[in-house]
Amino acid sequence: MKSEINDHDFTMIHEAIPHGDLRFHIMLHEFTSDLSRSERVSSHWHEEYELLVVTDGQGSAHINNRRFEIRQKDILFINSGNVHSLSAEPGIPLVFYAIDFGRELISSYGNDDIQQKYMNSQISEELIFRDHFRSGEPSWEKIFPLLDEIRSQYIMKETGFELLIKSDLLRIWYYLCKDPATAVPSSHRNNDAKIILIKEILQYIQKNYGRSLTLQELASRFHMSEGQFCRFFKSQVNMTAIEYLNYYRIGAACDMLRDSASSVSTIALNCGYNNISYFNRSFRKYMHCTPKEYRERITSLPSHSYKPDE
Question: What is the mean pLDDT of the chain?
Fold first, then answer.
């Protein structure tokens, strides 16, 4: 069965959804997002590599501290461990499929030339792959049909499909290595500590969003002044810490409004809002409707959830 991902994406930043298993470490996700939300996939990361193809609509991708526009047929390569999220204007579709796979699926047995030159070099960042391929570019022309083939083989699961998928992944890796933009930016290596730190901050917010959480606490928890913390957070996530906290809380509230019968005031408290008026204003700011209107609209639509392949 093909996996589905829809709008229930307000999960822990370190994604816990299994992506296949060690015998065949790969997973295909098909995603159709909730048009009422701006943030379609919240910030998260995983150990697997991800190749993502936009099949309809347009939006923005955020990878580590970079933001860029994406549109139909664009391809994203998301490196292992990169913090990433997707957003789109309310009412604009953003549909895609993503192929997540473990490093060992394409690694060599032992430390041969292939492993050293093309796998270990990427792991050690001697090779830095481009993360955005636009439709019609030379590398896109090579990679797109291979991803389409992987998607088809994964769905059909005919005898020997694992061999075809592995061979296609290796061919994609070849084109990533050969892409003219593959390089080693001198500043890239200095970003590792920042990426680790922003992961810790986001995870802390997502664990504690349901209670009172202040800038003072966040800055102190991560050994910065409030000014330092605000500047660092904005540079990495493209929104302020308070904006992100409110957005995450409203996203969690949307899930509760859809999945529970709890009152709006109870949901507001569970999401860290002690003032119902402020909750309502924040909800309207992000969702362009009241919590009651959102519940009425979303419960009239087919149920959306985030489920691993079964």
Answer: 85
Report d(CA 173, CA 178) in Å as an integer: 9
The encoded tokens of residue 31 equal: 């995603």
Residues in the chain: 310
What are the structure tokens assigned to 124, written together?
A: 């050690």
Give pLDDT tens digits for 84-104.
999 999 999 999 999 999 988
First CA to last CA distance, the chain: 6
- Helix 276-287 with 241-259: angle, nearest 10 deg: 90
Gyration radius of the chain over CA positions: 20
DSSP label at residue 44: E
Q: How far is Cα of residue 211 from the mean position of the Cα atoms in its chain?
A: 25
Q: How many helices (H) and strands (E) does the chain have?
A: 11, 9
Q: How far apart are CA 262 and CA 276, in angstroms?
A: 14
Residue 102, amino acid: G
What is the value of pTM for the model shown? 0.66
Cβ neighbors of 269 (< 8 A, separation 6 or more) are none
Q: What is the pLDDT of residues 153-191, one digit of tens each?
A: 999 999 999 999 999 999 999 999 999 888 655 444 456
CA distance 8 to 41: 9
Q: Write the CA distances from 284 to 247, 264, 292, integer angstroms.
A: 11, 13, 11
DSSP 77-143: EE-TT--EEEE--TT--EEEEEEEE-GGGT--SSS-HHIIIIIIHHHTTSSB--SEE-TTSHHHHHH
Give yes or no for residue 17 having a pLDDT over 90: no
Please list, in sequence order, all residues whose beta carbon lies within 8 angstroms of the beta carbon of residue 226, skipping any fewer than 6 positions away.
Answer: 215, 216, 219
Neighbours of 153 (CB within 10 A): 18
